[in-house]
Amino acid sequence: MAPASPQFTLVGFSPELDWRPLTFLKPIPANRVCSACGLVRKKTAILPCMHVLCWCCYEQCAQDGAHECPLDGSGYEEDDVNMFDFPTDDLLRREVKCWNEDSNRVCSACGLVRKRTALLPCMHVLCECCYEQCDQDDFNECPLDGNHYEMHDVTIMVFSDYLLRSE
Q1: Domain named RING-type: which ranges (predicted)?
Q2: 75 and 23 in one domain?
Q3: To which H or E segment does residue 22 belong?
Q4: 65 and 21, same structural domain?
Q5: From CA 17, how far away is CA 14, in angstroms rounded?
Q6: What one-character-per-residue DSSP string does 122-159 give?
């Protein structure tokens, strides 16, 4: 069965990605996601009952020599298990949404979520409407803390529905 959400937690690929939930633009194939713990690890085992176990869950089940699926209790022989590796390069080719996408889209002044925002040097985020209002006054001050800013210190962010992957 394919996972319901495109959000997954990776373990064992890199320190930067480990244990951080990632939202993938296209779901990871079901044979890469552990049916028991829901994690994506470098190595998975597909049991004859078609449940997928990450290497850690598989090893834990095999520890007592029972060779039973932890999900349905069906027995299996070691030779009937298919092992798969998930190469890091294959994972890194996948596109993910930005971790900060949601927080940088919410205006600190009015609370609205907009596609275009301005990040001020004081780290407040203003939607286009609130930012233009500050710009019209020619004060160049953050409406929240009164800090003065120079126009060249403002970062304008335009969000799309997807984060482009880096090559």
Answers
A1: 34-72, 107-145
A2: yes
A3: strand 21-23
A4: yes
A5: 5
A6: TS-EEEHHHHHHHHHTT--B-TTT--B--GGGPEEEE-
81 and 142: one domain? no
What are φ and ψ of residue 54, in 5° steps?
-70, 165
**Domain assignment of residue 34, given as a range:** 7-92
N- to C-terminal Cα separation, the chain? 31
| CB-based contacts of 72, cutoff 8 Å, min separation 6 | 49, 51
Give me the amino acid identity at 2. Answer: A
Helix (H, G, I), strand (E, B) or coil at 108: coil
pLDDT in tens, the chain (167 residues): 444 557 899 999 888 788 888 888 888 888 899 999 999 999 999 999 999 999 999 998 877 777 889 899 888 888 899 999 988 888 888 877 766 666 667 788 888 777 788 888 888 888 888 888 876 656 788 888 888 888 888 888 887 654 433 33
Total number of domains in the chain: 2
